Structure formats: structure tokens, C-alpha cells
Amino acid sequence: MSTLEIKDLHVSIETEQGTKDILKGVSLTINSGEIHAIMGPNGSGKSTLAATIAGHPRYEVTSGSITLDGEDVLEMEVDERAQAGLFLAMQYPVEVPGVTMTNFLRTAKTAIDGEAPKLRTWAKEVKEAMAKLRIDADFANRNVNEGFSGGEKKRVEILQLELFKPKFAVLDETDSGLDIDALRVVSEGVNRAHDENNMGTLLITHYTRILNYIKPDYVHVFVDGKVAEQGGAELADELEANGYDRFLGAAAAA
Amino acid sequence: MTETTEKVAGVEVGERRISIPGFTEEGENLANSTNAAAEHSHGGVGETAKPLTAGSGSRGNRHTGYELAGFPEPTGREEEWRFTPLKKLAGVLSDAPTANAGTEDEPVDYQVTENVDGLVVSTLRDGQAPRGSVLQPADRAAVVAYKNTEQALYLKVTEGTELAEPVRVDITGKQAGARANSHIVLEAEPNAKAVFVLEHRGSADFNGNVEVKLGQGADLTVISLQRWNDDAVHAGQHDAEVGQDASYKHIAVSLGGSVVRLNANFRYSGEGAEAEMYGLYFADSGQHIEHRTFVDHNTPRNTSNVLYKGALQGETARTVWIGDVLIRAAAEGTDSYEKNQNLVLTDGARADSVPNLEIETGLIEGAGHASSTGRFDENHLFYLMARGIPEKIARQLVVRGFLNEIIQKIGVPSIEESLQEDLEAELEIHGN
């Protein structure tokens, strides 16, 4: 049982117009095995939260804390966070020319586990995981994300999620750009990782569609850098029916 | 890294194809005023029997010849010398013979693969064909090397022969600062197929010309490895003439040396040929590595591709790439592309990259060029580190990945592996 705890998190970025505050006091606690959905309109800070947890250098934490089983995540380098068991499935996975998927997956697995995976079982594991996500076998020889379609990139993110077995995964709009078949395949992968590894999940999404496949225990609505409302899965249904208007009105009035 | 799209005559050029204002399918709207220089005959790479028409600034008008008088000592203001540290190159620009020529103390040792069926190894004096039929010195370094090499090494692959193993010429310098002149003639007779590897190691002031002749249907790869010690100086002109339906691949890999300046050029003697030039370089502090390529589309319906990639690390690391492509009026149906990419790993390093494309006919399949010089992409680093990969290993992965594209072109596993090791060592030097 692990706990990822975010307390009163304030995050800003530097822009050409000066410092811009994005997160204005976010608190969330996620335990192993829980699925939390974070929903909200564009620009509400959902992706900033994801990138901050992963340690992207562009985002500056001005106050608050993130801890993983009491360990200070904000003190960790980006690679140390992954080694500690955090995983970010990115909204825009990066193409890395000249680095093959095979080489990349093995190098990352070695870094996360602290030892090289056993050659024979690893190759088999990768092959099976790819098959389950309906990723063509020849992707193993291709360069990381290079020339992959949007849907292929997302599947490869989930492939890593399944292979690296993190304690907590943050899925940043993994559903965007996926057709209905790909959405199902990707959701199945997330559910497998959840069931097999008791993974805690922070699912960031703009739409409720993915929640038909991945059932959240908690739903948090982000508005203007804060959690405006929390609830169970039924909150997502209400958002599906009524949209974000009532939150935006409240934010504008405030 | 961001790909900067080049412009041709004010029009953006795409990755692979361009459209040229004023060029219709018939090509009748060519800007005659700019290309209307007097017709004249000249002895350039790409010289053809008929007089050529080209603008006065055209690459095709660059002086070439066998007479020293035609090439005064460069001052550094000339177009072809303005990037080069001439003081450091002085040892190969003087009209000097090879030190201790004809004795055991010659500064450079040559080891050549011999006793191979279908490979003829001999020497050529000046005036003995095919010496001088392809290569015409295009700068002072080349002409002094030509003049001061009495016997050129001549390696010929006979007609129809396919050599299974690469033919090696190991060129090893034994004395830093000692002058060595060299001229090597490589010939693939019709339908012959071979790989030549010229491997330069050790220390010397080495001035070496290479001329390469490909007969009809020949398939020839020339790999020139510059793995000099840090105190070596190397100037060289590598010229090729590619026969009808032939395939030519020239690969320059420059890792070592104080100054390396290589001019790699080719032209065609027929149609239907494919020719490629690839380059890989890695410059550390104190190194000047300069590659100049010239693709002369002098005959119709040929394909060319040039790709040079370099990495720079260290305060005074310096690289230059000048890529000239000339598509002459006769070269209808040409398909041509050239690209240079540089990866700058540390502050203070400088990479110059100049693609030049001259097109004298609109009736081409394609002509494009691109150049990009960028810093290490932090997004690559973040992605890899977010997967648990430590920064040092992530950097190595990205740099190796960047340069791998060229290594994969080599096609000789033993060389590919040893270059991987060299690059690993280069990256270690700076603690990346």
C-alpha cells in the first residue's frame, strides 16, 4: 500500500508576459489501487499538475508539497521519480530519432529496476505486451515514437506503463486523438496494470468517454488551478449532461 | 532541433520538393540575365566537352587546374577559405615534397589489401591514365599534393568483379608536423562492385587526393575514416566520376585531428546513376573539422543525395559544412537532395552550415536542401529521464541516435561497431 499525496500545491510558469500562476492550491491524496479522474475545462491546470508530478523543468513549484510514501518527490530528479515508481503517460509523447524502441525499453527497465531484465523473459514479455495492445511487432525496431500516429504513440505509452509496473500512473489526456477501438485497447491496458500491480491512477481527461472503460473511484473537477468539486463516478455523469458551465460561471463571478 | 527551411529564390523549400518561381515545365522562363555569362570552357569538376553557360558566381566556374600558379597562397578572404584556420593548415599548403621521400623515414605508412582476385594494385605517374582524368585540383592544397606525388597508388577492381570483403588502405602518420603528399586512384570497371576503406590514423601533415572512377553499372563505396591523433592536419580532395547506371557512395567520418578539411565531390559521365555522400563528424575543443561537398549534375536523369551530421562539444570546437549542388542546364530529370544537421552539445562551440543550390533547368524531378543546427533538445532528455533513465545515459542515447543514421549507412559491421565505441569515448571525454 502506497500513498501519493499532493498538498496545497502552487505552480507557476515563466512566460514572455512574466510569471503566470497555474496551480493555486491543489490537494489530492491517491492510494494504491484507487482511480482518480481529474476533469476540467481547457486551461484549468490539469496538464500542469501531470507535468509537475513528473518534474518537467518548465514548471516551478512555489509552495506546497508532493510526497510518495512520505518521501519528498519535489526533491527528486526526473529519473529518480520514475525509479521511485511514478509514471507519466504523456499527452504528446516525444520522438527520439535514432533510438530504437527495443533499446529504449530495455534501458528504461534497467534504470527503473536497478538491474537489467533477464534477456529471454524480457523479450517475451515485451512481445506479449505489444500483442495485447495490438502494436505491430516491427515497432520494436523503429525509433522511439518516430513517425508513429497519434494513436500509436498513446499505445506505446501504455505499453511502457504495463512493462515498467509503476506504483502510480498519471495519464495526461491519454484518450485524446484515439478512435473508439484504440480507446478500448488502451483502456484495457490501463485496467490490466491497475489489476495486476494494484496501481494507483490519476486519469486526466477532458471528456467522459474514457470513463466508460476505466471506472473512477473519485472524480475531481479542476477550475482555474483549483479543485472546484469532488465526488464519485456520478459526478462525471453530471458533467457529461451539463458540461463545465456552472463551474466557469462561478470562477468568473469570483 | 528545429529544421530551418531554406529558401530558393525567395520561395520556401519543403523537405523533399520545391517549386521555383519562373520555372515552368518547359523551363523557358529561366532567368537568362543572371546566367548569361560568356560561354567558356574551363577545367572544373564537372567539366564536359561542350562549353558551359553559367553565372559568374556559379560553383561551376571555380578555377581548377594542375598549375600551382593558378592557386596563389590563400589569405583567408577567399570564399573557399574564409572558414578555415589557415595558420594551422600552413603545413599542407606549401609547395613541398613529402618529408624524407623515398626513405624509411617517410612520415606516413601505407598498408594496402593485396592478393585479391579481381583487384589490381599498382602505381600511376602523372599523365598515366586514369590518373588526372577525374580529379582536377580545385584549391591550393589539392594542387600541391598532386604535383608532389610522383607515384599515385592505383587500385582497380576489374570488370564484373564483386569483392566480398572491403579493400583497405591503412594510412598511418608517424610524425606530427611532417609533410606527406598522397594521391590515390580508385577504379571500378564496368559492373564491378567493391568497398574501399581509407583509414587515417596517427599524426602527420597529410595532404591526400583521392580520385574515383566508376564504369557503367559499377557499385562502389568509398569510406574515408579520419581517426587521427589530436596533432594531425589533413587536407584532401576526393573527386569521383560516376558512370552510367552506376552507384556511388562516399562516406567521410572525421573524429580526430587538429584540422581536417575534406572536399568531397562527384559528377557523372552518363545517365541513370545514383550517387550519395554521407558524413559524420565529432569535434571537441581545439578541433576544426571542415567538409565541403560539391554535387555536379552535369548530365541528365541522375540522382544524388548528401547527408552530413555532426556533433560538437567543448568551448572551441568548430565545424564547417559547405554543400554545393549545381544542376546544369543539360541535367534534365535530376533528383537531388542535400542536408546538414549539427548538434551542439556545449556552450562556445560553433558550427557553420551553408547549403548552396544552383539550378539551371526547370525540368527536374526534385531539388531540395536543408540545414539545421540546434542545441541538444531538452524534450528528448525529459522524455527519457521520465522513464527512469539517468541524464548521462539519456544524453548518450540521444547523441548516438542522432549520429547513428550515418553509421547505419556504412554497411561494414566491424567499422560500425568500432565507430560506436569511438563515439562512446568522445562522449565520455566531456563527461556527458
UniProtKB/TrEMBL annotation, chain A:
Transferase is among the record's keywords: no
Sorted UniProt keywords: ATP-binding, Nucleotide-binding
Family matches, as InterPro entries: AAA+_ATPase, ABC_transporter-like_ATP-bd, FeS-cluster_ATPase_SufC, P-loop_NTPase
GO MF terms, alphabetically ordered: ATP binding; ATP hydrolysis activity
Boundaries of every ABC transporter domain copy: 4-249
Superkingdom per UniProt: Bacteria
Gene3D superfamilies on file: P-loop containing nucleotide triphosphate hydrolases
Pfam families, A to Z: ABC_tran
PANTHER family tied to this protein: ABC TRANSPORTER I FAMILY MEMBER 6, CHLOROPLASTIC
Entry protein name: Fe-S cluster assembly ATPase SufC
Organism: Nesterenkonia alkaliphila
UniProtKB/TrEMBL annotation, chain B:
Start and end residues of each SUF system FeS cluster assembly SufBD core domain: 176-402
InterPro entries noted in UniProt: Fe-S_cluster_assembly_SufBD, SUF_FeS_clus_asmbl_SufBD_core, SUF_FeS_clus_asmbl_SufBD_sf, SUF_FeS_clus_asmbl_SufD
GO biological process, one term: iron-sulfur cluster assembly
Lineage: superkingdom: Bacteria
Start and end residues of each stretch annotated as Disordered: 34-76
Similarity comment text for this entry: Belongs to the iron-sulfur cluster assembly SufBD family.
Name the record gives this protein: Fe-S cluster assembly protein SufD
Organism of origin: Nesterenkonia alkaliphila
